[in-house]
Amino acid sequence: MGPYGSKTEGADNSLAVHYPADSADKTMAVLPGDFTLTWEAGGFCQVNLAQNRNLIATVLCFCEAGKSDRVLDLFCGMGNFAIPLAMQAGEVLGIEGQGSAIRSAVRNAAAAGLTNALFRKSPIHAACAELVAAGERFDCVVIDPPRQGAPDLAAALATLARR
Known about the structure:
Blueprint: E1 6-7, E2 16-18, E3 26-31, E4 35-40, H1 49-63, E5 70-74, H2 82-86, E6 91-96, H3 99-111, E7 117-121, H4 124-133, E8 140-143, H5 154-160
Parallel strand pairs: 5-6, 5-8, 6-7
Antiparallel strand pairs: 1-2, 2-3, 3-4
Helix pairs in contact: 4-5
């Protein structure tokens, strides 16, 4: 496979990874029947498509977001959860500390035609403190932290979440 090749895995859970010739600094995963996510080189993505579908389905099920709901997605990355949540919710705010991930999330929301997904680059603890101070509330809060976890966020999360 050359520098702009593609890889497909499994018949029912195919994942096509492309390295576009016109943009060697981006990678793209096509999730069949759902949406396409792109991310910058070095960005994180869930490569096990079947498990990723399970994760997304679980988040959507627990969140039960409707068109009048606000959702907060902490550690949103490239929008893996925020994009499908925005397809159901009234508004989604994704917060992530990594600039390249936020740039990817913004591109992914635009590619999906979503205008109700907003993304903000900020350290998570600082963003949560600002949201609490502003009196913001969300119908659902999704948190998918990196391996080190998200210590000391419990109080802020309890304040931000309506349910």
